[in-house]
Specification:
Elements (H helix, E strand, L loop, with lengths): L6 E6 L2 E6 L4 H21 L27 E2 L2 E2 L5 E4 L2 E4 L5 H23 L4 H16 L10 H19 L7 H8 L4 H18 L6 H9 L11 H10 L18 H6 L17 H15 L5 E5 L11 E8 L4 E8 L6 H12 L8 E3 L21 E6 L2 E3 L1
Keywords: Nucleotidyltransferase, RNA-directed DNA polymerase, Transferase
GO molecular function: RNA-directed DNA polymerase activity
Organism: Amphibalanus amphitrite
Amino acid sequence: MTLPPSVQLFTFADDLLLVGTGKSLDLLQIRMQETLDSLDTICQRASMTVNPAKASACLFSLSKRALPPCQLRYAGRPIPSEDSVTHLGITLDKGLSFNTHVEKVVSSCTRSLGVLKMAKRKGVNQARLLQLYGSLVQSRLLYGAEVITATASALEKLDRLQTAALRIVTGCTRDTARATLRYMANLQSVPQQVETLRVKAVARALESHEHPLHEVARGLVTRPPLRRLRRAGWLRRASDTLRELRGRHQFRSRPQFEPTPDGVAELWTIISQHSLGRSSREWPPGVASVEFESLLEELMAEGDALLATDGSVIREPLPRSGWGCFIRSAELTQSVSGATRLVLSSMRAETEAVTVRVIGRCRRPQWVRCGGTGAADDAPGGEGGRGGIKGFVRVNDGSLVC
């Protein structure tokens, strides 16, 4: 079968998809009709039947002008013109905004939340509930997400649905922060998961020379297009992320933290780490504070300086990690607070970053605490920020114990 220019035929099982592109609507309609007539002839020769009642046509355009409906026929019967079509489980609307697809996904996943609620009432443990969430909800949320160009508001709807499911799984109340729920379930937000899927899709295209998108992806990653030629699309966005790659196996999904200055890295020696563990993030502030203080009393020697952090990151107006420093003596307690305008990826990175801010400001033995639920508001240096206590550091004679 010879196809006219700019017309492609795709098949999957017993589904047929005809795609035509062009700038002239009249010329495009003529070519599509010729293809349909040729397809009808071939099907008759092969004793195959195409059901026109299940066929539909849709005109896709980014133009804001009102477009006339498609006027195509198959075997003499008109093909209905629709505002959206569904192919392989993805709904394509005429403006390619994918809002219709997101609405269908939200409606489908909302019904599945009832299964999670019923399982929760029956006493199913949290690990099994997370598995149910992955099979019933998450698989639908992320199906085809790497190739659709959903808006930020549409992805926010999916993220809210994930949050509702995680509240059911964890049993947390509605005032629980999203970041806390995702931490407990060890999940990213939906926009971050979508970005991960996009980058993996482009990486697969780059790995295989036989991949149909190999040359396109290679050109996009190697050299960014001119600003005036940029177009919104999943392939373009994923390529932009790959060009900003940081590290061997990680791509940057948030602003990169500043490297530790050489002088600081040489000054401090990290000997060991002590952590209260993940469960401490679920403790009330008072309980976490008592546990934290007892841990300090157990490990601190006289004259030592201690640095404690909780891994919290506040993103408004800029990404930054808050900290509070205080010096204890027999007569008085001096406190200092501040923030590192960094997004921190590890305990060591956060420790070194806070140390940069501390050096030169405090000359006496000190404790440093980054705000968080682990520090009660009335505790010295505690500011009642976000996150749970992650660990602490002891400074003694130029050595840093974290």
